[in-house]
């Protein structure tokens, strides 16, 4: 389901309060933050690489770093901060390990893990054949387009917020999203099937 709750001002305020408690050593508050964000971050990371073992390691290192450096880190928008940090850490990991058997560039056009997509499919009015066709179309998108579709329609981020996460300008985000929707629309008689899938993905 569209997950706008993570960027809703009230929800973000709740996360910031938990973070403030974490900063002073409240482990329970920190665990709540980890539990609230782990699956979201994993699903996002899966749009960048199919090396899920590496992804789990990077996530673990990210949360350890947050805890160890908590007194030095100021966070205004918690979920957006984590999305951007995960993205940067994944790219850093591949730069530091160029001999890795699976890299972001190599997996850019490979399908995301089946369970990642299946767990998000709740729009039952689209028949099974159309679902499979749309899933294949999503999996075949170039890496950045797939990433933008996830951030826009699953996380509910605005163009400005996506630009911040991906370190792009707003127009580049708009252009990439437009190209992604054009690619997804091709081959479908009615665009509303694709949009319905995205909004309930």
UniProtKB/TrEMBL annotation:
Residues 33-90 form the RNA polymerase sigma-70 region domain. InterPro entries: RNA_pol_sigma-70-like (IPR039425), RNA_pol_sigma-70_dom (IPR014284), RNA_pol_sigma70_r2 (IPR007627), RNA_pol_sigma70_r4_t2 (IPR013249), RNA_pol_sigma_r2 (IPR013325), RNA_pol_sigma_r3/r4-like (IPR013324), WH-like_DNA-bd_sf (IPR036388). Keywords: Sigma factor, Transcription, Transcription regulation. One of its GO terms (molecular function) is sigma factor activity. GO terms for biological process: DNA-templated transcription initiation. Residues 132-183 form the RNA polymerase sigma factor 70 region 4 type domain. NCBIfam families: sigma70-ECF. Belongs to the sigma-70 factor family. ECF subfamily. This is Sigma-70 family RNA polymerase sigma factor.
